[in-house]
Amino acid sequence: MTMGELMRDATTGLAWRVAEPAPTAPTSLLVLLHGVGGNEAQLADLARTAGPDVLVVLPQGRLVLGPGQFGWFRVAFTPTGPQITPEEAEASRIALTQWIGTLQRQHGVAPSRTVVAGFSQGGIMSASVALTAPESVAGFGVLAGRILPELEAAVAPAERLRALRGFIGHGIHDSKLPVTWAERADAWLTQLGVPHTTRLYPVDHTLSAGMRADFEAWYRPLLAAASA
Q: Are 166 and 141 in contact (CB under 8 A)?
C-alpha cells in the first residue's frame, strides 16, 4: 500500500498521510493510529481492503521519540502497570478530535460514516476520542490497546454513547498490555451501554491476521450501513 505526501494541519499541528489511490469523492473515512514508537506507515496494510470509496488517513504521533518513531504520549511500564503522562494524552485526544472534524468537513464525510481505530497506544487514543466525543465518529477499534482509567471523568454521558460502536481485539499472551486490559475495556463498555465486539487471540502484543480480519469484518458493515 502506498501513501501520499506528508501533510500538516495548521491548527492542531498534526501530520498525516492518505492511503493511495484515494477516492476523489469518499463516502466514508477510516482513521488509523499507530502505536508508541511507530509511525504513520505502521497500519498502512489495513487500507488495502478498505474499499474504493473509503478515505484512509494515517496520522503521525505528536511526540518525536526517535528517527521515524513517534508517540501520542509518554508512558513508562512499571511493576504496577503503565504510567502515562496524562497531559500529553489529553493534548493528543483534543488535537485528534479537532483534526478528524476538519477532515470530515474538507471531504464532506459525516461523523456517522467515520471510524477511528489503532494499534496499542493508537487504540488507546481511538477510544479516548470516541468515548469523550461520540458524536464525532460512528465507531472505534482498540487493537492490542486499552481504555485509559484516567479518561473516566471525561467520558460522555450514556445517552450520547448509545449510537457508538466499539471493537476490542487483544492477544491472550500479550506481554506488553496484559489481556486483563481487554477484559476491563469489555466490562467498562458494557457498563456504559456501548455496543461492542470483543475478540481474543492466542498471540502476544501484535496485530495478528485473525485480529485484522475480524476488525475489517466489523468496520466494513458499519461504514456501509452508514453510507446507505
A: yes
pTM beyond 0.85, yes or no: yes
Round to whole Å and give the CA distance between 15 and 40: 9
**Distance (Å, whole) CA 63 – CA 69:** 9
How far is residue 142 from each of residues 25, 118, 178, 211, 214, measured CA to CA in Å?
A: 28, 6, 14, 10, 12
Residue type (1 letter), 129: V
- Nearest-angstrom CA–CA distance, 5 and 222: 29
Q: What pLDDT was estimated at residue 70?
A: 97
| Residue showing cell 496494510 | 45
Distance in angstroms (rounded) separating the CA atoms of residues 82 and 3:
32
Residues 118-139 pLDDT 10s? 999 999 999 999 999 999 999 9
Query: Using CA atoms, how far apart are residues 150 and 139, in angstroms rounded to an integer?
Result: 21
Q: What's phi and psi for 221, nearest 5 deg?
A: -65, -30
In three-state secondary structure terms, 125 is helix
Quote the distance between the C-alpha of residue 92 and its chain's center.
12
Smallest Cα–Cα separation from 29: which of 112, 96, 87, 118?
112
